[in-house]
Amino acid sequence: MASLYPTTLFHFTDKDGLYKILTSNFKVSYAREKICGPNSEREFAVPMVSFCDIKMADLKYFVEKDYGKFGIGLTKEWANRNSLNPVMYINQHCDIADRFNNGLASVYQTLGSNSLTTKGYHNLINTYRYMKNYEGDLIRDQKITKNYRFADEREWRYVPPFEEIGVEPFVAKTSIETKERKTFYNRKIDHLRLYFQPEDIKYLIVENEDDILKLIEHLRFAKVNFTEDTKKRLASRILTLEQIINDF
């Protein structure tokens, strides 16, 4: 039965980012988030790797959002094995975010600082790692896009397990506001990777025809388990943005 959703999740980046992914898998890094309700808001940062659940024909609209013009598409079977999950989009005009914030505050008021080590409090906080406003201000490179519809991205996330040793699963905005502080926290999780195998890759996307041969050359030296047959198969799965825009 046909579905509105594809069987592939895409991650977009720049050329250097794609080459690094093919060489050493996905690197987990902190992303700043802001969840707003009618009367409250919460800003924080979460370690993650993000993907979009978008069909090929609609990618032409996604790549216009400046996430990068190079991408990798992996199967949802791979996503399921690695516990990725679609985010929950919250309407900032609905009081669900307010009630969630109030619930967290109530738990903290009841248990005090002890709440920070209780499993129930961790479970509540963990939910925040999979939440995003349906619509809001998009801030990228100091450029603000008002009323950006985040739900168009159909985002899926990988976040490390809450109990991952040595990893802060949830960082307050005040601790990671500057570029230097974000770099500091990312260095603390530099060892974290989201792994995949060559057979998990369905598509590789480059900007133009000139990039195809460069990517094929890179695949020759990427991963030690890329056999010659694997490299040939991956080379056959390379698409350009021009093809996607014109043919899908």
Provide key terms for this protein.
4-stranded mixed β-sheet, 5-stranded antiparallel β-sheet, 248 residues
General description of the model:
There is one protein chain. With 248 residues, the protein is of the alpha+beta class. The chain has one domain. Helices cover 33% and strands 28% of the residues. It is built from 9 helices and 15 strands. The mean pLDDT is 87. It comes from Kaistella chaponensis. This is Putative abortive phage resistance protein AbiGi, antitoxin.
What would you report as the Rg, rounded to the nearest angstrom?
Answer: 19 Å
Stretches with pLDDT under 50, minimum 5 residues: none
Number of E-type strands? 15
Count of separate DSSP helical elements: 9
SS-based structural class?
A: alpha+beta
What's the overall geometry? globular
What share of residues are in beta strands? 25-35%
The ordered string of helix (H) and strand (E) elements is EHEEEHEHEEHHEEEEEHEEHHEH
Number of domains as seen in the coordinates: 1
User: What's the overall average pLDDT, rounded?
Assistant: 87
Helix content: 25-40%
- Quaternary form: single chain
InterPro entries: AbiGi
Protein name: Putative abortive phage resistance protein AbiGi, antitoxin
In short:
This is Putative abortive phage resistance protein AbiGi, antitoxin. 33% of the residues lie in helices and 28% in strands. It starts with 7 loop residues before the first strand and ends with a helix.
